[in-house]
Design a protein that fits this description.
Largest sheet: 5 strands, antiparallel
Helix content: 40-55%
Order of helices and strands: EHHEEHEEEEHHHHHHH
Oligomer: single chain
Strand order of the largest sheet: 3-7-4-5-6
Bound molecules: calcium ion, zinc ion
């Protein structure tokens, strides 16, 4: 049967790839090999062809950030790494997973991520703003940006002047971000920004309007 990595884990993998584009994939894995398939491995496809586990190579990624993102997601079930296993049902408290048998796998070259069947179709993002910047840091960065009269003016004019030829690099990144993110959100932000407000108030407004998308603007601001 044709098999596929389930949608939730596919999204997780895509987000990891987007964050660490040069990561090593040598020890990545999804479906079990033929030997694996005779055992009860979560790398085997379900009846519907979905595979509910993904092995992620440990090199070139921030594993702690990945674990935080994973554990915060509704589709997460358990992970195995470095002889430890950690279950949602156990409050994400890692415990030993060392065993001394043939084909011992210490899970030191990859992290095994396992999702739960009930949420395998979840489309929720795995990584959020807080993985990169705290909400306070994000608001602070926006506050600084919005103190720039040019940034402010450009934000106000986005819906009317689209597409624009920006002259400042931060501004151009910002405008591109809005373009990619959601023109409606930008329009709403611009409209609300047109009423007099302090930079802090405007930053709070923007954060509220952008919601989940704040992450992407935050990343751009962090780059400068
Ligand atoms: Ca499944
Ligand atoms: Ca590797
Ligand atoms: Zn695995």
């Amino acid at each position: 049967m044709a098999w596929f990595l389930n949608p939730a884990l596919t999204r997780f993998r895509n987000e990891v790839n987007a964050r660490w584009p040069r990561r090593d994939k040598t020890s990545d894995g999804t479906i079990g090999d033929t030997a694996h398939q005779s055992t009860n491995s979560d790398h085997n496809p379900d009846r519907d062809g979905s595979v509910d586990a993904w092995d992620m190579d440990v090199d070139g990624v921030d594993i702690a950030a990945c674990k935080r993102a994973f554990q915060a997601h509704e589709a997460a079930y358990y992970w195995i790494h470095n002889d430890r296993i950690c279950f949602r049902d156990e409050g994400w408290r890692p415990r030993s997973y060392a065993y001394a048998g043939p084909n011992r796998n210490r899970h030191d070259k990859h992290v095994h991520w396992n999702s739960r069947q009930s949420h395998e179709r979840s489309t929720k993002p795995w990584f959020t703003t807080e993985d990169d910047m705290t909400p306070a840091e994000f608001t602070a960065a926006l506050t600084v940006a919005l103190d720039d009269a040019g940034v402010k003016a450009r934000l106000r004019s986005i819906p009317l002047t689209y597409p624009v030829t920006p002259t400042q690099s931060l501004l151009s990144k910002f405008v591109t971000a809005f373009d990619k993110i959601d023109l409606l959100a930008a329009a709403a932000a611009a409209e609300r920004l047109s009423t007099p407000a302090t930079a802090k108030e405007q930053a709070d407004l923007l954060r509220e309007v952008l919601g989940d998308r704040a992450k992407e603007v935050g990343l751009i601001l962090a780059e400068g």
